[in-house]
Amino acid sequence: MSTQNKLLNQAVSLLKAGALIGLPTETVYGLAGCTLNESALEKIFALKQRPKDHPLIVHISQHEPLSNWASDLPSYTDALIKAFWPGPLTLVLKKNPHISSLVTAGQDTVAIRSPAHPLCQQLLEALGTAVCAPSANRFGQLSPTSAKHVRDIFGDELFVLEGGPCEVGIESTILNLSSGTPQILRPGMISAEAIASVIERPVIPYQSDSNNVPVVPGSAKAHYAPSKPLSVVSRDEFVVLCTSQPNKQFAWLCQKDHALSKENVTNIIMPTTAAAYASELYQTLHQLEHQTEIDILAAEKPNDTAEWQGIVDRLSRASN
Ligand code: TXA
Ligand code: MG
Q: What is d(CA 303, CA 320) in angstroms, rounded to the nearest whole number?
Protein backbone atom coordinates (compact mmCIF):
# COMPACT_ATOMS: atom_id res chain seq x y z
CA MET A 1 0.00 0.00 0.00
CA SER A 2 1.36 3.47 -0.86
CA THR A 3 2.18 5.90 1.96
CA GLN A 4 -0.55 8.19 0.70
CA ASN A 5 -3.15 5.40 0.95
CA LYS A 6 -1.95 4.47 4.44
CA LEU A 7 -2.37 8.05 5.59
CA LEU A 8 -5.79 8.23 3.95
CA ASN A 9 -6.89 5.05 5.75
CA GLN A 10 -5.57 6.44 9.03
CA ALA A 11 -7.62 9.62 8.50
CA VAL A 12 -10.76 7.59 7.76
CA SER A 13 -10.26 5.42 10.88
CA LEU A 14 -9.78 8.46 13.08
CA LEU A 15 -12.95 10.11 11.74
CA LYS A 16 -14.94 6.87 12.18
CA ALA A 17 -13.70 6.69 15.79
CA GLY A 18 -15.06 10.22 16.42
CA ALA A 19 -11.69 12.03 16.33
CA LEU A 20 -10.87 15.20 14.40
CA ILE A 21 -8.32 15.57 11.60
CA GLY A 22 -6.70 18.43 9.67
CA LEU A 23 -8.21 18.21 6.18
CA PRO A 24 -6.76 19.71 2.98
CA THR A 25 -9.23 21.50 0.73
CA GLU A 26 -8.56 23.76 -2.26
CA THR A 27 -9.50 26.89 -0.24
CA VAL A 28 -7.99 26.52 3.26
CA TYR A 29 -7.32 23.55 5.57
CA GLY A 30 -10.33 22.40 7.59
CA LEU A 31 -10.68 20.96 11.09
CA ALA A 32 -12.87 17.98 10.20
CA GLY A 33 -15.16 15.69 12.20
CA CYS A 34 -18.05 13.41 11.20
CA THR A 35 -21.25 15.38 10.61
CA LEU A 36 -23.38 12.67 12.21
CA ASN A 37 -21.24 12.36 15.36
CA GLU A 38 -22.35 14.88 18.02
CA SER A 39 -19.28 14.35 20.18
CA ALA A 40 -16.98 15.04 17.21
CA LEU A 41 -18.93 18.24 16.56
CA GLU A 42 -18.49 19.24 20.22
CA LYS A 43 -14.73 18.68 19.83
CA ILE A 44 -14.60 21.02 16.82
CA PHE A 45 -16.10 23.89 18.81
CA ALA A 46 -13.90 23.16 21.83
CA LEU A 47 -10.62 22.86 19.91
CA LYS A 48 -11.30 25.93 17.75
CA GLN A 49 -12.60 27.88 20.76
CA ARG A 50 -15.50 28.78 18.51
CA PRO A 51 -18.83 30.04 19.89
CA LYS A 52 -21.74 27.63 19.32
CA ASP A 53 -23.76 30.26 17.42
CA HIS A 54 -21.36 29.98 14.45
CA PRO A 55 -22.73 27.20 12.19
CA LEU A 56 -20.46 24.73 10.34
CA ILE A 57 -20.13 23.84 6.65
CA VAL A 58 -20.97 20.23 5.67
CA HIS A 59 -18.45 18.83 3.15
CA ILE A 60 -19.79 16.12 0.83
CA SER A 61 -18.35 13.85 -1.85
CA GLN A 62 -19.12 14.90 -5.43
CA HIS A 63 -20.94 11.56 -5.81
CA GLU A 64 -23.28 12.12 -2.89
CA PRO A 65 -26.71 13.56 -3.69
CA LEU A 66 -27.34 16.94 -2.07
CA SER A 67 -30.83 15.71 -1.17
CA ASN A 68 -29.22 13.52 1.53
CA TRP A 69 -28.67 16.72 3.52
CA ALA A 70 -30.94 19.46 2.14
CA SER A 71 -34.50 19.96 0.85
CA ASP A 72 -36.48 22.49 -1.19
CA LEU A 73 -33.66 22.76 -3.71
CA PRO A 74 -34.36 25.54 -6.23
CA SER A 75 -34.61 24.36 -9.85
CA TYR A 76 -31.27 25.98 -10.77
CA THR A 77 -29.30 24.12 -8.05
CA ASP A 78 -28.25 21.40 -10.51
CA ALA A 79 -26.83 23.99 -12.91
CA LEU A 80 -24.76 25.48 -10.07
CA ILE A 81 -23.42 22.09 -9.04
CA LYS A 82 -22.58 21.22 -12.62
CA ALA A 83 -20.71 24.49 -13.13
CA PHE A 84 -18.92 24.90 -9.79
CA TRP A 85 -18.67 21.56 -7.91
CA PRO A 86 -16.40 20.20 -6.82
CA GLY A 87 -15.11 23.67 -5.98
CA PRO A 88 -15.06 26.74 -3.72
CA LEU A 89 -18.82 27.41 -3.60
CA THR A 90 -20.91 26.78 -0.46
CA LEU A 91 -24.69 26.58 -0.79
CA VAL A 92 -27.05 27.47 2.07
CA LEU A 93 -30.28 25.44 1.79
CA LYS A 94 -33.17 24.20 3.94
CA LYS A 95 -31.74 21.47 6.14
CA ASN A 96 -32.95 17.89 6.43
CA PRO A 97 -34.33 17.03 9.88
CA HIS A 98 -31.58 14.55 10.87
CA ILE A 99 -28.82 17.19 10.89
CA SER A 100 -27.67 18.14 14.40
CA SER A 101 -28.47 21.68 15.55
CA LEU A 102 -24.77 21.91 16.46
CA VAL A 103 -24.04 21.99 12.71
CA THR A 104 -26.60 24.68 11.94
CA ALA A 105 -26.50 26.74 15.15
CA GLY A 106 -30.19 25.97 15.56
CA GLN A 107 -31.15 27.51 12.20
CA ASP A 108 -33.38 25.66 9.72
CA THR A 109 -30.74 25.98 7.00
CA VAL A 110 -27.47 24.15 6.35
CA ALA A 111 -24.33 25.21 4.47
CA ILE A 112 -22.92 22.53 2.12
CA ARG A 113 -20.02 22.27 -0.30
CA SER A 114 -18.08 19.65 -2.24
CA PRO A 115 -14.37 20.60 -2.18
CA ALA A 116 -12.16 20.27 -5.28
CA HIS A 117 -9.04 18.94 -3.54
CA PRO A 118 -8.58 15.36 -4.89
CA LEU A 119 -7.37 14.03 -1.53
CA CYS A 120 -10.41 15.50 0.21
CA GLN A 121 -12.69 13.85 -2.36
CA GLN A 122 -10.91 10.51 -1.88
CA LEU A 123 -11.33 10.80 1.87
CA LEU A 124 -15.06 11.60 1.66
CA GLU A 125 -15.57 8.72 -0.75
CA ALA A 126 -13.72 6.25 1.50
CA LEU A 127 -15.49 7.52 4.63
CA GLY A 128 -18.90 7.15 2.98
CA THR A 129 -20.41 10.15 4.74
CA ALA A 130 -19.99 13.91 5.13
CA VAL A 131 -17.65 15.82 7.44
CA CYS A 132 -18.08 19.22 9.05
CA ALA A 133 -14.98 21.34 8.62
CA PRO A 134 -14.50 24.91 9.70
CA SER A 135 -11.16 26.46 8.83
CA ALA A 136 -8.48 24.84 11.01
CA ASN A 137 -7.47 27.92 12.95
CA ARG A 138 -8.38 29.15 16.42
CA PHE A 139 -11.35 31.50 16.40
CA GLY A 140 -10.30 34.98 15.26
CA GLN A 141 -6.95 33.91 13.81
CA LEU A 142 -5.68 33.61 10.26
CA SER A 143 -6.89 30.58 8.27
CA PRO A 144 -4.28 27.89 7.43
CA THR A 145 -3.27 27.23 3.81
CA SER A 146 -0.71 24.50 4.48
CA ALA A 147 -0.49 21.40 6.68
CA LYS A 148 2.35 23.10 8.57
CA HIS A 149 0.10 26.06 9.46
CA VAL A 150 -2.36 23.59 11.02
CA ARG A 151 0.38 21.79 12.98
CA ASP A 152 1.75 25.16 14.16
CA ILE A 153 -1.70 25.96 15.59
CA PHE A 154 -2.80 22.61 17.05
CA GLY A 155 0.48 20.76 17.62
CA ASP A 156 1.26 17.10 17.06
CA GLU A 157 -1.84 15.70 18.80
CA LEU A 158 -3.92 16.53 15.72
CA PHE A 159 -3.47 14.25 12.70
CA VAL A 160 -3.15 16.41 9.59
CA LEU A 161 -3.60 14.90 6.14
CA GLU A 162 -0.79 16.42 4.04
CA GLY A 163 -2.28 17.88 0.86
CA GLY A 164 0.26 20.55 -0.10
CA PRO A 165 -0.45 24.27 -0.28
CA CYS A 166 -4.10 25.30 -0.91
CA GLU A 167 -4.57 26.42 -4.51
CA VAL A 168 -7.44 28.87 -4.07
CA GLY A 169 -6.12 30.27 -0.80
CA ILE A 170 -9.19 32.05 0.63
CA GLU A 171 -12.43 30.56 1.95
CA SER A 172 -15.30 29.52 -0.33
CA THR A 173 -17.98 31.84 -1.63
CA ILE A 174 -21.18 31.33 0.42
CA LEU A 175 -24.45 31.61 -1.53
CA ASN A 176 -27.83 31.60 0.21
CA LEU A 177 -30.45 29.65 -1.76
CA SER A 178 -32.84 29.17 1.16
CA SER A 179 -35.04 32.23 0.66
CA GLY A 180 -36.06 34.23 -2.40
CA THR A 181 -33.36 35.74 -4.59
CA PRO A 182 -29.97 34.02 -4.27
CA GLN A 183 -27.60 36.13 -2.19
CA ILE A 184 -23.85 36.12 -1.56
CA LEU A 185 -23.24 35.86 2.21
CA ARG A 186 -19.44 35.64 1.98
CA PRO A 187 -17.48 36.70 -1.12
CA GLY A 188 -14.85 34.31 -2.47
CA MET A 189 -13.18 33.49 -5.77
CA ILE A 190 -16.48 32.51 -7.44
CA SER A 191 -18.16 35.86 -8.10
CA ALA A 192 -21.83 36.89 -8.06
CA GLU A 193 -21.49 37.61 -11.79
CA ALA A 194 -20.22 34.09 -12.55
CA ILE A 195 -23.09 32.60 -10.54
CA ALA A 196 -25.73 34.84 -12.15
CA SER A 197 -24.59 33.88 -15.64
CA VAL A 198 -24.93 30.17 -14.82
CA ILE A 199 -28.37 30.37 -13.23
CA GLU A 200 -29.58 33.05 -15.64
CA ARG A 201 -31.19 35.14 -12.92
CA PRO A 202 -30.09 37.95 -10.62
CA VAL A 203 -27.88 37.35 -7.60
CA ILE A 204 -27.78 39.79 -4.68
CA PRO A 205 -24.10 40.70 -4.32
CA TYR A 206 -22.30 40.62 -0.98
CA GLN A 207 -23.10 43.64 1.20
CA SER A 208 -20.37 44.13 3.76
CA ASP A 209 -22.39 46.37 6.07
CA SER A 210 -25.78 44.66 5.82
CA ASN A 211 -27.44 43.14 8.84
CA ASN A 212 -29.42 40.70 6.73
CA VAL A 213 -30.70 37.38 7.99
CA PRO A 214 -29.47 34.66 7.70
CA VAL A 215 -26.38 35.87 9.42
CA VAL A 216 -22.91 34.68 8.51
CA PRO A 217 -21.31 34.86 11.93
CA GLY A 218 -17.89 34.56 10.29
CA SER A 219 -18.57 38.05 9.04
CA ALA A 220 -17.95 39.43 12.51
CA LYS A 221 -15.26 42.06 11.96
CA ALA A 222 -11.68 41.11 12.83
CA HIS A 223 -12.40 37.48 12.01
CA TYR A 224 -9.30 36.96 9.88
CA ALA A 225 -6.90 38.99 11.98
CA PRO A 226 -3.15 38.46 11.73
CA SER A 227 -1.22 39.07 14.96
CA LYS A 228 0.42 42.28 13.65
CA PRO A 229 -1.39 45.49 12.67
CA LEU A 230 -2.34 45.61 8.99
CA SER A 231 -3.36 48.70 6.99
CA VAL A 232 -4.94 48.60 3.55
CA VAL A 233 -3.87 51.80 1.79
CA SER A 234 -2.88 53.42 -1.48
CA ARG A 235 0.83 53.89 -2.24
CA ASP A 236 0.58 57.62 -1.42
CA GLU A 237 -1.04 56.83 1.93
CA PHE A 238 1.66 54.26 2.64
CA VAL A 239 4.42 56.81 2.00
CA VAL A 240 2.86 59.04 4.68
CA LEU A 241 2.40 56.08 7.05
CA CYS A 242 5.95 54.71 6.94
CA THR A 243 7.53 58.18 6.95
CA SER A 244 5.58 59.13 10.09
CA GLN A 245 6.89 56.05 11.98
CA PRO A 246 10.60 55.84 11.08
CA ASN A 247 11.38 53.55 14.03
CA LYS A 248 8.96 50.86 12.87
CA GLN A 249 9.76 48.23 10.24
CA PHE A 250 7.05 47.85 7.60
CA ALA A 251 6.19 45.04 5.19
CA TRP A 252 4.58 46.53 2.06
CA LEU A 253 2.45 44.07 0.03
CA CYS A 254 2.28 45.78 -3.34
CA GLN A 255 2.31 45.45 -7.10
CA LYS A 256 5.79 45.43 -8.63
CA ASP A 257 5.74 48.97 -10.00
CA HIS A 258 4.55 50.34 -6.61
CA ALA A 259 7.50 49.12 -4.53
CA LEU A 260 9.08 51.73 -2.26
CA SER A 261 12.79 52.11 -1.66
CA LYS A 262 13.05 53.13 1.98
CA GLU A 263 15.14 51.97 4.94
CA ASN A 264 12.20 50.85 7.11
CA VAL A 265 10.27 49.14 4.29
CA THR A 266 10.47 45.52 3.07
CA ASN A 267 8.65 45.20 -0.25
CA ILE A 268 6.59 42.04 -0.77
CA ILE A 269 5.71 41.90 -4.47
CA MET A 270 2.24 40.41 -4.87
CA PRO A 271 0.80 38.74 -8.02
CA THR A 272 -1.13 40.82 -10.55
CA THR A 273 -4.07 38.42 -11.07
CA ALA A 274 -6.76 37.94 -8.41
CA ALA A 275 -6.47 34.13 -8.48
CA ALA A 276 -2.71 34.15 -7.93
CA TYR A 277 -2.99 36.89 -5.28
CA ALA A 278 -5.61 34.95 -3.29
CA SER A 279 -3.52 31.81 -3.52
CA GLU A 280 -0.55 33.59 -1.85
CA LEU A 281 -2.30 35.95 0.55
CA TYR A 282 -2.64 33.90 3.78
CA GLN A 283 0.69 32.16 3.20
CA THR A 284 2.33 35.61 2.98
CA LEU A 285 0.56 36.88 6.12
CA HIS A 286 1.53 33.71 8.05
CA GLN A 287 5.18 34.25 7.08
CA LEU A 288 5.13 37.90 8.08
CA GLU A 289 3.58 37.04 11.45
CA HIS A 290 6.69 34.99 12.19
CA GLN A 291 9.25 37.56 11.00
CA THR A 292 10.26 39.26 14.24
CA GLU A 293 11.96 42.18 12.47
CA ILE A 294 8.64 43.28 10.92
CA ASP A 295 6.38 45.45 13.13
CA ILE A 296 3.58 46.60 10.84
CA LEU A 297 1.99 45.21 7.67
CA ALA A 298 0.52 47.34 4.89
CA ALA A 299 -1.20 46.06 1.77
CA GLU A 300 -1.84 48.09 -1.35
CA LYS A 301 -5.58 48.52 -1.86
CA PRO A 302 -6.59 46.21 -4.76
CA ASN A 303 -9.07 47.12 -7.51
CA ASP A 304 -12.66 47.06 -6.39
CA THR A 305 -13.74 44.88 -9.33
CA ALA A 306 -15.84 41.70 -8.98
CA GLU A 307 -12.95 39.24 -9.18
CA TRP A 308 -11.05 41.00 -6.36
CA GLN A 309 -14.05 41.20 -4.00
CA GLY A 310 -13.11 38.16 -1.88
CA ILE A 311 -9.57 39.48 -1.47
CA VAL A 312 -10.72 43.03 -0.61
CA ASP A 313 -13.07 41.49 1.98
CA ARG A 314 -10.35 39.37 3.67
CA LEU A 315 -7.86 42.27 3.66
CA SER A 316 -10.39 44.66 5.17
CA ARG A 317 -11.29 42.17 7.92
CA ALA A 318 -7.63 41.48 8.67
CA SER A 319 -7.01 45.22 8.91
CA ASN A 320 -9.52 45.74 11.71
O1 TXA B 1 -13.61 27.34 2.17
C2 TXA B 1 -14.30 27.08 3.15
O3 TXA B 1 -15.52 27.26 3.19
C4 TXA B 1 -13.54 26.49 4.38
C5 TXA B 1 -13.02 25.11 4.01
C6 TXA B 1 -12.40 24.40 5.20
O7 TXA B 1 -14.05 24.35 3.44
N8 TXA B 1 -14.42 26.44 5.50
C9 TXA B 1 -14.77 27.56 6.20
O10 TXA B 1 -15.51 27.28 7.35
O11 TXA B 1 -14.49 28.68 5.87
P12 TXA B 1 -15.75 28.33 8.51
O13 TXA B 1 -16.41 27.55 9.59
O14 TXA B 1 -14.49 29.00 8.85
O15 TXA B 1 -16.77 29.31 7.93
C16 TXA B 1 -18.09 28.86 7.74
C17 TXA B 1 -18.98 29.99 7.38
C18 TXA B 1 -19.26 30.84 8.59
O19 TXA B 1 -19.17 32.18 8.23
C20 TXA B 1 -20.68 30.42 8.94
O21 TXA B 1 -21.37 31.41 9.60
C22 TXA B 1 -21.27 30.14 7.57
O23 TXA B 1 -20.25 29.46 6.95
N24 TXA B 1 -22.46 29.30 7.67
C25 TXA B 1 -22.52 28.01 8.04
N26 TXA B 1 -23.80 27.56 8.05
C27 TXA B 1 -24.57 28.60 7.68
C28 TXA B 1 -25.97 28.78 7.48
N29 TXA B 1 -26.84 27.79 7.72
N30 TXA B 1 -26.40 29.98 7.10
C31 TXA B 1 -25.52 30.98 6.86
N32 TXA B 1 -24.19 30.88 7.02
C33 TXA B 1 -23.71 29.71 7.42
MG1 MG C 1 -12.99 30.40 9.38
A: 19
Q: Give CA–CA dist 225/188, Å, rounded.
A: 17
Our CA dihedral for 159, 161, 165, 171, rounded to 10 degrees, sits at -80
CA 244–ligand 1 middle distance (angstroms): 39
Sign of CA pseudo-dihedral 201, 206, 212, 218: positive
Burial of 75 per CB tally in 10 Å (0-12, 13-18, 19+): exposed
**From ligand 2's centre to the CA of 262, what distance in Å?**
35
Nearest-angstrom CA–CA distance, 55 and 102: 7
Q: How many CA atoms lie within 13 A of 137 on its CB side?
A: 21
Q: What is the distance between the alpha carbons of residues 211 and 229, in angstroms, rounded to a whole number?
A: 26
At 85-141, the pLDDT tens digits run 999 999 999 999 999 999 999 999 999 999 999 999 999 999 999 999 999 999 988
Taking the C-alpha atoms of residue 184 and residue 273, their distance in angstroms, rounded to an integer, is 22
Q: List phi, psi (to 5°) of 102.
A: -65, -35
This prediction's pTM: 0.95
Cα separation, 240 vs 115, whole angstroms: 43
- Find the residues whose C-beta lies inside 6 A of ligand 1: 25, 27-28, 30, 54-57, 88, 90, 92, 104, 107, 109-111, 115, 133-135, 171-172, 174, 185-186, 214, 216-218
The domains of the chain, with CATH numbers, are: 3-199 (3.90.870.10), 230-318 (3.40.50.11030)
